[in-house]
Amino acid sequence: MNVDVNQLFEMLESDDEDVQYKGIDEAAKVKYLSIFILPIESKGLWENCARVLANRTNEELELYLPWLFEWLKDANWPGFDIIYKRIQSMPTRFIALEYQCAVKKALQCMDEMWLEWMSGLISNQELLSSLPPDQQKLMKNYYERQWNTQME
Q: Are 23 and 12 contacting, i.e. CB atoms less than 8 angstroms apart?
């Protein structure tokens, strides 16, 4: 990496789009991705951090899935759409177990909105089928409530 993490974050948060794109290019060289997952330093970084993560392979992202699902807690968060679409594009075999864990965690926290946003992912019938029956029923209910669509 030609820049340190401080410079990288400054680039990603820059008002200049060219500098942001250079930052995203530099971020592609970073091996450990956790620094890009909802960095507490500034929400202004989140959109470009989501772009950095979305460009990584399924294999690279697999380790970080528990934290990527955390990003789905609030659809107003910068980068939400990017992370949502990236998770949605991943094969079920990569996300099924961590999705189940995220559902359990959201239930423990009683986070209704998180469950509603995550329920959109069950439009993938293979993901829905991978859930235990109680989670299938629960997520279908959230899906119908949030997305106003009946599940088959």
A: yes
Look at residues 95, 105, 147 and name the one whose alpha carbon lies nearest to residue 126: 95
78-107 pLDDT, tens digit each: 999 999 999 999 999 999 999 999 999 999
d(CA 86, CA 70): 14
Domain range list for the chain: 1-64+74-90, 92-152
Handedness of CA 109, 113, 114, 116 (dihedral sign): positive
Tell me the pLDDT tens digit for each residue of 24-49.
999 999 999 999 999 999 999 999 99
pLDDT digits (tens, 9 = 90+) for 3-25: 789 999 999 999 999 999 999 99
Nearest CA to 137 out of 115, 114, 105, 111 is that of: 115
Distance between CA atoms of residues 143 and 54, nearest Å? 24
